[in-house]
Amino acid sequence: LVREITAAEPGVDLALGCTAQRLLREDGAFQGVVVRDRNGSEAELRGRLVVGADGRASGIAELAGLPSKTLPHERIAYGAYFEGRLPANAPDATLWFLDPDVAVANPTDDGLVFYGALPTKARMAEFKRDPEAALVSYIAALPEAPPIHESTQVGPVIGKVDMPNRMRGPIGPGLALVGDAALATDPVFGVGCGWAFQSSEWLAESIAPALRGEEALDRGLSRYRRRHRRELRSHTFVIHDFATGRRLNLIERLLMRGAAHDPEVAARFKAFGSRQPKTGRALAAVTPRILVVNARQALSRRPGGPAQTAPDQT
Ligand SMILES: Cc1cc2nc3c(=O)[nH]c(=O)nc-3n(C[C@H](O)[C@H](O)[C@H](O)COP(=O)(O)OP(=O)(O)OC[C@H]3O[C@@H](n4cnc5c(N)ncnc54)[C@H](O)[C@@H]3O)c2cc1C
User: Fold this and answer.
1) Strand ordering across the sheet containing 151-160
2) How many other CB atoms are there within 10 angstroms of residue 109's CB atom?
3) Residue 222, Cβ neighbours under 10 Å: how many?
């Protein structure tokens, strides 16, 4: 979809099968790339700005020698598409926090469901030995398990065991990184594609005045770097901390239990989980309510305590 839409834009030359090999640098700034096609022929592409949108192993970031920081990631990810009976919450996705392992059931196009297992690396040997069997038994053993035994696997089980959290740049002289090239994070929260689109948008907005000739490119690039940090810093802090494979902390347990029993806490939790702006502060504001809901639940579990409210399916 992205390729089709981009190729249809006036002024875009789509060059499939070309790989960026080297950066062109003149007068202290990057001024383009050398690309090689499938026949081995090389060509220079020149421009005022080079954008590295080349994913989590970004060669452009490496070639540019941009600063980078890598943080550990202690989970593996295995998943496959299945056809058959849909999970109870379809068309919504369901995410299991098994503390510390994670699982996901994602209903998607054409009646397919993507089942994913994201356990800690403690289970890596089991998944490497027999990915199909490990995935099916992992999903079937979930609490309120989705109907994986009533489904047929469509396509191979895809696994990824090395997914360090990586932050780079995101700018250099005449150069900017977007998407995973700038920030590759733990896939548990499903934010990567959204952030790839958003970071591209922030870059475009930041450098528009420079492209109109109203200011120097460096100013626009600095604006992009600030925006990237401002928008994503607090979310990446939470995501990278959880990516260590640690167990849920007390605050997270209270929050999740509160969300299961109280619609207002659930709404705030959803807003935070779906990365809506300024929800960290909104979540803090609902802390007293989270504590009250948890206290009520604790009391209700004692003999003679008030009746327990049933957790909803949020
Ligand atoms: C297991 C797993 C599960 C995930 N689940 C989700 C999810 O549920 N939701 C979500 O939003 N995100 C998810 N993500 C993250 C998501 O896949 C990425 O964040 C997203 O694809 C990043 O987009 P991008 O365009 O920056 O990079 P990419 O999608 O990696 O695209 C980079 C492109 O650059 C090309 N390229 C690389 N080097 C060169 C070169 N030298 N010359 C020319 N081209 C080059 C590559 O071929 C590729 O096409 C998941 C990731 C993993 C690993």
Assistant:
1) 94-97, 102-107, 112-118, 77-84, 151-160
2) 6
3) 13
pLDDT digits (tens, 9 = 90+) for 207-252: 999 999 999 999 999 999 999 999 898 888 888 999 999 999 888 8
Q: What is the pLDDT of residues 105-124, one digit of tens each?
A: 999 989 999 999 999 999 99
Nearest CA residue ID for atom 36, ligand 1 = 54
The residue contributing the CA closest to ligand 1 atom 35 is 54
Q: Using the structure block, give the residue that is written with the tokens 């421009």.
A: 47
Helices (H), 2-149: 2-7, 59-64, 124-129, 131-140
Question: What gap in Å lies between CA 97 and CA 99, rounded to an integer?
Answer: 6
**How far apart, in whole angstroms, are the C-alpha atoms of residue 53 and residue 151?**
37
d(CA 71, CA 257): 29
Atom of ligand 1 nearest to the CA of 163: 53
| Ligand 1 center from residue 288 Cα (angstroms) | 40
- State pLDDT tens for residues 33-42: 999 999 999 9
Residue 301 in tokens? 């579990």
